[in-house]
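The material for today's practical consists of a large collection of protein records. Read left to right, the backbone structure tokens trace the chain's path through space. An example says more than a description, so a record of this kind follows:
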Amino acid sequence: MGTAPAVTASGANPAPALLVIDMQNTLVAIAHRASAAVAAIAGLRTRARAAGAPVVFAQQEDEELERGTDGWRIVSGLAPAAGDTVVPKAAPDSFLGTELDAVLRARGVTEVVVTGFATEICVESTARQALSRGYDVVLVADGHTTSVRPAAPGRYVAPEASVAHHNEIYRNLRFPGRRVRVLPAAEVDFGRGTPS
């Protein structure tokens, strides 16, 4: 019934792919520390490409982010290039009803380096699904972000607290047969990436 798990490296010679989730104009416009997140992801993308690791963009499409509109487009600082893959999605889980799993498996990926927007929704949903589907996960501590919150007290925690909270959860997350790491962008190593 389910898809067979990927051959997971779990520390030995991982084959990473950079996954960039929902870094689209409309969403980045409301993101906390947007320019810093874009810069961190751009640096990762450059290093992934240099190492031959796949770069995959998950791009939300729905009634608020209609295909072809300016708001739907991936921000110019991260615009996909030749060789990158863009996977359209309609749910927070970037694997649900998409070709993401097939794309990663076809490229021999065993580890997903997760970045993007929004921390508590699409980033979280996708990272957990990657683990459930057999991939090791690197959550890039400074490469995911969430929406700016109103200054007045409310039901949401402050964006910096949300990002820190999820980083800490993943630092302590134990998932049988998987390696889960939280690393700053500067420490992510694509040196053993599979050719794209």
